[in-house]
C-alpha cells in the first residue's frame, strides 16, 4: 500500500499560504519535502551515510541549490540539452543554506550528508532563495538524520517604511533594506543582507520580525514531523579519537590557540600564527612518539585541523 503524502501549511502573515509536503517525491531519500508558494515549488532531499569513512576527521556536508531550466518550461540551449554547472547565484544560495544547517549537527557526527534543493516549478513573482533553507530544514526534520534543532530562513525587506516577510520580486525592487535571516526557535544562526542606510534600532526591529516569522515556520515543520511519526534519530558511530594524543595537544596548544583566536590581529596574520603553531606541535609530537605512545600518519592527518580551531568550534576538539 502506497504511503499517502503528508501536508502542513502556514500563512506568511498577509494571506499568502506556504505548503510543506512529504511522501510524494523522492521517497527513497532519508528525508524529502516539497515547499510551494503560488506556482513556485522547491524539492529538497537529504541523504546521509550510516557510518563515517575510516579515518574521517571532519563533517562532510554537501549542500547544492539549483534552479532547473524545466521549472520555467525551458530546455537548456547547449548541444547536450543538459543543465550546466551551478551559477554564482546558485552557489551563493547553497552557502546560505550550508551556513545555517552546519551548526545543527552534533559535534561528533562525521557521516557524509548530502542536501539537494531544486526549484522544479518557478513563479515570476516568487523569490525561491528565501524558501530554500526552509525546504532543506524540513527535509532534515522528517528524516532520522540526527540534528539538534529545527530552523528556517526568511527574507525581510523594508518597503515604504514597513517590514515585509518574503516580499515578491516587484516589491523588493523598491526596498531600502534587504536581509536574509536564519534562526532556530531561540537563536539567530545567520544574517546576510544589504541596506542603503539603517540605524541599529532598524536592524534590531528587522531581526525581531524575521525571528517571529521563522518561529511560525519551525512550528509547521514540527507538525509535519509529528504527522510522519518521527520521534527518534538514528544512532551513529562516534569518531575514533586517540585520547592520549588529544590530551597532549590540549596541554601544549590550548592556551596558545586561545591567545591567537582572541587577538585583534588581521586574518592573514592569525592564519600564519596558526600555521606556525601547527608545525611546532607536529614536530613536538613526532619527536616524542614512542612505541608505547605512537603518533601515526592517521593521527597526523586528524591533528592538522586542531590548531586552526576557533573559539566557536574549539569545544569539539577539547579546547574548552
What does this protein structure show overall?
- This protein is α+β, with helices and mostly antiparallel strands and 320 residues long.
- The chain has two domains: 223 residues, GHMP Kinase, N-terminal domain (Ribosomal Protein S5, domain 2), CATH 3.30.230.70; 75 residues, no CATH class.
- The chain has seven helices and ten strands.
- The strands form two sheets. The chain has a six-stranded mixed β-sheet with strand order 1-2-3-4-6-5.
- The chain is globular, with a radius of gyration of 23 Å.
- The protein starts with 5 loop residues before the first strand and ends in a 17-residue tail after the last helix.
Topology overview:
Elements: E1 6-11, E2 17-22, E3 31-37, E4 40-48, E5 61-67, H1 88-101, E6 113-121, H2 129-141, E7 151-159, E8 162-165, H3 169-172, E9 177-184, E10 188-195, H4 200-228, H5 243-262, H6 267-288, H7 297-303
Parallel strand pairs: 5-6
Antiparallel strand pairs: 1-2, 2-3, 3-4, 4-6, 7-8, 7-9, 9-10
Helix pairs in contact: 1-2, 2-4, 5-6
Any idea what the shape is?
A: globular
Strand content: 15-25%
Quaternary structure annotation: single chain
Calculate Rg over CA atoms: 23 Å
- CATH homologous superfamily grouping of the largest domain: GHMP Kinase, N-terminal domain
The H-and-E topology, N to C, reads as EEEEEHEHEEHEEHHHH
- Main β sheet profile: 6 strands, mixed
What share of the residues lie within helices?
A: 25-40%
Low-confidence stretches: 307-320
H/I helix tally: 7
Per the CATH scheme, the topology name of the largest domain is Ribosomal Protein S5, domain 2
Amino acid at each position: 500500500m502506497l504511503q499517502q503524502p503528508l501536508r502542513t501549511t502556514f500563512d506568511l502573515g498577509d494571506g499568502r499560504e506556504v505548503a510543506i509536503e512529504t511522501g510524494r517525491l523522492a521517497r527513497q531519500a532519508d528525508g524529502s519535502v516539497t515547499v510551494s508558494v503560488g506556482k513556485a515549488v522547491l524539492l529538497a532531499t537529504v541523504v546521509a551515510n550510516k557510518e563515517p569513512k575510516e579515518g574521517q576527521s571532519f563533517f562532510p556536508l554537501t549542500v547544492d541549490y539549483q534552479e532547473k531550466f524545466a521549472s520555467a518550461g525551458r530546455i537548456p540551449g547547449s548541444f547536450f540539452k543538459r543543465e550546466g554547472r551551478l551559477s554564482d547565484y546558485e552557489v551563493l544560495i547553497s552557502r546560505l543554506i550550508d551556513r545555517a544547517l552546519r551548526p545543527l549537527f552534533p559535534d561528533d557526527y562525521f557521516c557524509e550528508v548530502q542536501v539537494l534543493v531544486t526549484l522544479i516549478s518557478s513563479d515570476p513573482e516568487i523569490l525561491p532563495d528565501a524558501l530554500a533553507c526552509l525546504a532543506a530544514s524540513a527535509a532534515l526534520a522528517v528524516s532520522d538524520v540526527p540534528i539538534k534543532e529545527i530552523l528556517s530562513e526568511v527574507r525581510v525587506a523594508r518597503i515604504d517604511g514597513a517590514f515585509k516577510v518574503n516580499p515578491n520580486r516587484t516589491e523588493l525592487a523598491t526596498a531600502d533594506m534587504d536581509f536574509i535571516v536564519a534562526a532556530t526557535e531561540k537563536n539567530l544562526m545567520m544574517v546576510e543582507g544589504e541596506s542603503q542606510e539603517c540605524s541599529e534600532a532598524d536592524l534590531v526591529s528587522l531581526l525581531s520580525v524575521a525571528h517571529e516569522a521563522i518561529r511560525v515556520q519551525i512550528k509547521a515543520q514540527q507538525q509535519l514531523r509529528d504527522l510522519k511519526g518521527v520521534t527518534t534519530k538514528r544512532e551513529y558511530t562516534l569518531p575514533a579519537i586517540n585520547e592520549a594524543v588529544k590530551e597532549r595537544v590540549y596541554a601544549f596548544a590550548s592556551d596558545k590557540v586561545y591567545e591567537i583566536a582572541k587577538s585583534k590581529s588581521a586574518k592573514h596574520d592569525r592564519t600564519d600564527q596558526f600555521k606556525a603553531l601547527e608545525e611546532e606541535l607536529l614536530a613536538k609530537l613526532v619527536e616524542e612518539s614512542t612505541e608505547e605512545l605512537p603518533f601515526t600518519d592517521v593521527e597526523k592527518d586528524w591533528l592538522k585541523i586542531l590548531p586552526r580551531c576557533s573559539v566557536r568550534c574549539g569545544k569539539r576538539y577539547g579546547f574548552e
